[in-house]
Write a structure and sequence with these properties.
The protein is mainly α. It has a domain of 94 residues. It is built from one helix and no strands. This is Secreted protein. It holds the Pfam family DUF948. InterPro entries: UPF0478 (IPR009293). Keywords: Membrane, Transmembrane, Transmembrane helix.
Length: 135
């Protein structure tokens, strides 16, 4: 056996070892792809109940939103009625109430000023008497 033949045998053995290692890797890769395929199939089968549950939930939410729209419309109508009532109250009673309040304020201010003036006159007379009595 010549050195060239020995090198060829070693190269052939290395090639066989390389083919075996690649075969093992390909076998494992094939099993991994089979498992991935099975997982995808199961996920597809289990997605139908999830989607039907989501559809039921969305239907329920839409029903509730319609109810909320009705409530909102009623609240809007109540707000409009209160606004109309407030403007009616302001138009019919607001003006006279403001006038009555202004009148009562003016009368109370006039009474206070007359009392102060009367007190000032009484104090002025008392001061004159005191001065006359001291002379």
């Amino acid at each position: 056996m010549s050195p060239g033949q020995i090198a060829a045998l070693v190269a052939a053995g290395a090639f066989v070892l390389l083919v075996l290692l690649m075969g093992i890797a390909l076998f494992k890769l094939g099993r991994t792809l089979d498992e991935a395929t099975i997982a995808i199939r199961k996920a597809h089968q289990n997605s139908d109940p999830i989607f039907s549950g989501a559809n039921a939930t969305i239907t329920h939410v839409n029903t509730q939103l319609e109810r909320v729209d009705g409530i909102t419309a009623n609240a809007r109508a109540v707000t409009g009625n209160v606004s109309a009532l407030t403007s009616l109250f302001t138009a019919t009673l607001g003006g006279p109430l403001v006038k009555a309040a202004a009148l009562s304020y003016g009368v109370s201010k006039a009474v206070r000023s007359r009392r102060k003036a009367a007190e000032a006159r009484v104090n002025k007379h008392a001061a004159r008497r005191t001065r006359r009595g001291n002379r």
